[in-house]
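ESCALATION

Customer reports they have been waiting on this structure for their group meeting. Please prioritize. Original submission:
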Amino acid sequence: MKVKLKRFFDTTFFLIMLSLLLYFYISLAVSRNFFLIKWSAVDVSEVLQSTFSFDSVVFHLHESFQFQGPIYGGIAGMLFVSIRKHLWPLKAPRTRTYRGLVLHDILLNSLHVALACYAAFLLIFFLHIAFATPADVERGLRIARAPDILPPRSTNGASLFLDLFGVDFYFDHRKLYYFMVYSVQYGYAPFLFSIMGSTLGLVFEKRYQVLLVTVLTYYALTLFFNRLGGMNIMPSWLHTLLQYLEPARLCIPNSIRNVATIPFFILQLIPTLLPSGLIISNQIRHAKVRV
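Update from on-call: job pushed to the front of the queue and completed.
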């Protein structure tokens, strides 16, 4: 078990984790004009506190992963190509079936990448959110409520899990609420996208092809369901259903108003697992899994 864990938390794991952390902090600093400040004329501690405050980090966590999600899925696919080319010739003689080999390595590789992304989120969460003072949380609530625009009990669009736990859960347990929402974004989402990318690693020989096709597939499916749902002839229930099928919604789940949490999680499996299952089944059936 120790050997397996040591191999699992390898250099690649920490590189993925580090890349997400760097992207988050650099993009946060850019969004707050951190690099354009005239440092000689400001209080440094005040600028740092404002840039990396509770509310600033919370809102940036929600927005930043929508562009990273498919990229990490593509990275999982690139890693899978390496596994298929370099490890499968050694593992194949000790494996009973191709199906078992394929499913095992796709799931393990996807979990590897997803946990690296989730570990980066956990570090951000415990640095900036978990130990925030009540005053920081209240300040964030005032910003979220936008009192000049929204009523006092407005959640400013946050709706994931609230159909299960009620609106009061958002106000009474805000840090726990964010932990749950961002666990979806930085754990569940990269796992599904990594399955998609790893599956495409069965089809393509070049790593750059897997990365490119994974990202293009993500945006193509999102655009397809978005345009289809935007047609005026669509009834409201079908429009909502198509929204739930957009892969990009998984990276920003609170972009859907009054989302039904459980149906959302279930329907998000379709655009990733259904094509992946068909590809895997076709590859195995026609003996195209190259070991």
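Sent to customer with the following note: The first helix runs from residue 2 to 8.
Escalation resolved.
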